[in-house]
Design brief:
The protein has 312 residues and is mostly beta strands. It has a single domain, classed as Lipocalin, CATH 2.40.128. It is 13% helix and 42% strand. It is built from six helices and 17 strands. 33% of the residues are buried.
């Protein structure tokens, strides 16, 4: 079954959910730290389903390791860059004022962002404060035409013939024009944090590096008709590829979803729990304001509207 057909025939909206204004794909505009420094260069994306998030954090484009090779062939400097990438998926808990993340499946072996997030959105700008005062992040909602909203949490992916586990934990989100995919490691590495120390110690050992680096977080753009092409990823070589196949889906009798995937000479089955399956959703760039605010904006439009623009 095509994913579009699955959503149309078996639509299911999540009973519990984060606020509507939190939904969509956000790109971080800036992070400002308490010491007066700021960062606008790190490439950071936050993709939100009803009850879980996908997060991807990469160096600026010129700082990426672009070429995909066997892990044992990467230099120490390249491994040092790769093992600082960040990608994860986690369940969300919203208490009316702040968002917390639970049950993560993450590339890093320790939690780099342990604080919950008080959030507020105005227009396309969502501001996240660290309760400690350590930083504030400015996120911008990326524009999307109305379209499907799909949230699936990955249980595992197994080779059909042998039953061997290839990935355990992760998630898939389709959010209109965007999609995100996380594929967790087959098994926990069984080592303590930080990841960097273990990766650099394993340089040249393809088997050990494979256990540590067998993880993917990708963000993609496209459509349910044409597919979603990866634009940013923790995996060198994934950019420009299809994020995931759009067919092979089945709704199981227990309400879970499975997908049979053909690729790299293997046939595998991915098993998912359903967060939400919604055929049509919208991601408006605007938020409510009071009549007084609207009147003020109109009255002062000669200066307030001089240089305004809309993301496209």
């Amino acid at each position: 079954m095509h994913l579009d057909e699955l959503v149309e025939k078996h639509a299911r909206a999540a009973a519990h959910r984060v606020p509507e204004w939190m939904m969509g794909l956000y790109r971080r505009h800036i992070i400002a730290f308490a010491d007066g420094t700021s960062d606008t260069e790190t490439q950071v994306y936050w993709l939100q389903s009803r009850n879980f998030s996908i997060d991807l954090r990469l160096p600026r484009e010129a700082g990426l390791v672009a070429q995909a090779r066997p892990l044992a062939d990467y230099s120490r400097d390249e491994l040092a860059v790769l093992c600082e990438y960040e990608g994860w998926v986690a369940q969300c808990v919203w208490d009316g004022e702040q968002l917390a993340w639970r049950e993560p499946t993450a590339f890093q072996l320790h939690d780099r962002w342990p604080e919950p997030a008080p959030l507020r959105r105005v227009g396309n700008c969502m501001i996240e404060f660290a309760p400690s005062g350590a930083y504030v992040e400015d996120w911008r909602l990326q524009p999307s035409a109305p379209g499907p909203l799909v949230g699936l949490r990955l249980i595992d992916e197994r080779e059909l013939e042998s039953g061997r586990v290839l990935h355990r934990g992760g998630g898939l989100i389709v959010s209109g024009d965007y999609a995100g995919l996380v594929m967790g490691r087959a098994e926990a590495p069984g080592v303590s944090a930080p990841l960097r120390d273990h990766v650099l110690s394993a340089q040249g050992n393809d088997e050990a590096l494979g256990r540590l680096m067998d993880f993917e977080t990708s963000i993609a753009r496209g459509s349910m008709r044409e597919g979603f092409e990866v634009t940013h990823s923790t995996c060198p070589g994934r950019v420009g590829q299809q994020a995931f196949p759009l067919d092979g889906f089945t709704l199981e009798s227990d309400g879970s979803v499975s997908q049979v995937v053909h690729g790299d000479g293997l046939v595998t089955r991915r098993r998912f729990t359903v967060d939400t399956l919604e055929p049509l959703h919208a991601w408006p760039q605007s938020t409510p304001q009071t009549p007084a605010g609207f009147e003020w904006r109109g009255k002062e439009s000669a200066t307030l509207g001089r240089y305004t623009f809309t993301l496209s």
